[in-house]
Design a protein that fits this description.
The protein has 341 residues and is mainly α. The chain has one domain (68-339). Helix content is 74%, strand content 0%. The protein is built from eleven helices and no strands. Helix 3 (72-81) packs antiparallel against helix 7 and helix 6 (139-167) packs across helix 8. The protein is globular. The model has no long low-confidence stretch (mean pLDDT 87).
């Protein structure tokens, strides 16, 4: 591996002072000022991003109909819609063979996943408006534009903001001390994103319904659909999070590793969005079965394939971890032998 040091530092005596020749450290008042300004600027940027997310969420509650979640019926539907995604995220957490992640980091990542969903929503809305302005939303051209929209905007945008929820908080903490931790926090960020997305869909679909019985009937249907869609977000962002963890422990190749994780997550996400609108309709046309049954079958197969791939990746880490530690190194979490093949 090539020496990353400057030639002066590489060939100088160990005792030679190379401050501001080929090395640097905080020594002078001006150094401290520069370091302080940089640290303050980075912290201010993080705070600004979080506050912007809070503002967007507030606007969604005030103007976008999210306030309907305060209705007990809508609130229960939202919670129910998140149960499958919660179960999958809990499994990823359980499958982490290293030390368990602290609750405050898991909760913080979940909250950031909720907040940053608004960024993706704005990006998607602007892109949609652009397609409408260009007249690319109808006919076969509209069909192709929608597919391009999934691959260029929705997949990359949503996976990036979910990864940002991990990178901004949990990633910087010393408790993020293993590659597989990235999958755990990625899954939790996906859970937060799925929860607020479900709330938006359920609130929007039931906004004009005042009768409680009709509200329950309509809400049950959209809740069932959103409950099926939620685990996908956990799977996609767990993949991206795993590669973020890999990047943390391979800093010389961090950029390409993060990009690879985002590409995997974005492509799997975009293919889901594309195929979920095509495959169930084709199955219905060929078999005559109800649309929801065809949609349910598609979700089970699609998420099942990529969920198993995620589990195999985590299981491979588990095996490597166990092989690298002696039997006397202390108790470990139980093996998930059914996924070790």
């Amino acid at each position: 591996m090539p020496d990353s040091r400057d030639p002066v530092e590489a060939h100088a005596d160990d005792g030679r002072d190379l401050y501001e020749v080929s090395t640097w450290e905080v020594r002078t008042v001006f150094d401290r000022l520069a370091a302080g300004l940089y640290s303050t600027g980075v912290s201010a940027a993080r705070v600004f991003v979080v506050l912007l997310g809070v503002f967007i969420l507030f606007v969604q509650f005030a103007l976008g109909g999210l306030g309907a979640v305060a209705d007990p019926i809508i609130g229960v539907f939202t919670l129910l819609s998140a149960v499958p995604a919660l179960g999958l995220a809990a499994y990823v957490w359980y499958a982490d063979v290293t030390t368990s992640e602290p609750l405050e980091l898991l909760v913080g990542t979940f909250v950031l996943g909720v907040l940053f969903a608004g960024f993706a929503g704005i990006i998607n809305e602007i892109a949609n408006m652009g397609l409408e302005w260009l007249g690319l939303t109808t006919g076969f051209v509209g069909f192709l534009s929608q597919i391009a929209f999934f691959f260029v905007v929705v997949g990359p945008g949503e996976e990036t903001v979910k990864l940002l929820a991990v990178r901004l908080y949990a990633y910087r903490k010393p408790q993020f001390d293993a590659v597989v931790d990235g999958a755990v926090y990625g899954a939790v960020a996906g859970l937060g994103f799925a929860t607020i997305e479900n709330a938006i869909y359920i609130s929007g679909q039931t906004a004009d319904i005042s009768d409680p019985l009709n509200l329950v009937a309509a809400g049950s249907g959209i809740t069932a659909v959103r409950a099926l869609a939620g685990p996908g977000h956990v799977i996609y962002s767990a993949f991206a999070g795993y590669y973020l963890g890999l990047a943390k422990f391979n800093p010389d190749r961090a950029g390409p590793i993060v990009v690879k994780g985002l590409l995997i997550a974005a492509l799997v996400h975009a293919f889901y969005n594309t195929l979920s609108g095509i495959v169930p309709s084709v199955v219905v046309a060929l078999t005559g079965i109800p649309w929801f049954v065809a949609f349910f079958g598609f979700i089970i197969v699609y998420d099942g394939i990529f969920g198993l791939l995620l589990i195999r990746k985590i299981s491979r880490y588990r095996r490597a971890y166990n092989e690298a530690h002696d039997e006397e190194s202390g108790p470990k979490k139980s093996e998930l032998t059914e996924f070790d093949a």
